[in-house]
Amino acid sequence: MSRIGRLPVEIPAGVNVEVKGTSIHVKGPKGELSHTFPPVVEIKVADGQINVERQSEEKFHRSMHGTARSVIQNMVTGVSEGFEKFLEIQGVGYRAEMKGKNLEISVGYSHPVEVEPPQGIEFEVLERNNVIRIFGYDKQAVGQIAAVIRKIRPPEPYKGKGIRYRGEYVRRKAGKAGKAI
Question: Are residues 56 and 127 in the same domain?
Fold first, then answer.
């Protein structure tokens, strides 16, 4: 039995869960999400908990069991608390600033790069324009937009300049060795 799949998902106060077959719709104070799973998993709501069960012990059924439970947990957490990611900008003259709801990033190109937030995502610039906070209720969307922003200027290994996740370790390389005469 899947260790993750057999754990129940607690439904916090203020969160409404609707299950129709293999589709689930979760609504909370931060927003609402819905997802449809393959018919190999059964979703049951009882006593303020969501339980996920599988049909058989086939490999695909076992893998979907834990995946479905994790996705449901992320949906419930997202609509009740939300998710956030932090990106750090390092480099002389590199900075980010807000232009209305959009994020404008200056990272050494001839022009600033403007990023428009998708539905349900918000940006905030902290700490002297060097830290970007991305937050929203959909975990996948928060991670995806964070990856898109990081890809604008990934950290380079020689000076470490670029956009990185908070806490990300960038392995540094030694520069070019001088020629001995």
Answer: no
Q: In this structure, are 50 and 72 located in the same domain?
A: yes
Q: Which of 85, 2, 25, 63 shows the shortest CA–CA distance to 11?
A: 25
Spatial CB neighbours of 2, under 8 Å, sequence gap ≥ 6: 54, 62, 65, 66, 69
pTM reported for the whole predicted model: 0.87
> pLDDT tens digits for 56-74?
888 998 889 999 999 999 9
Report the CATH number at residue 91.
3.90.930.12
Cβ proximity of 118 and 147 under 8 Å = no
Domain that holds residue 39: 9-80
Number of other residues whose CB lies within 10 A of the CB of residue 151: 9
Q: Per residue in 134-162, pLDDT tens?
A: 999 999 999 999 999 999 999 999 998 99
Same domain, 106 and 159: yes
Number of domains in the chain: 2
Contact 18, 7 (CB under 8 A): no
Residue 180's pLDDT is 63
Within a domain: 176? no
Please state, in angstroms and as integers, the Cα–Cα distance from residue 9 to each residue in 1, 14, 40, 176, following that order: 16, 15, 19, 54
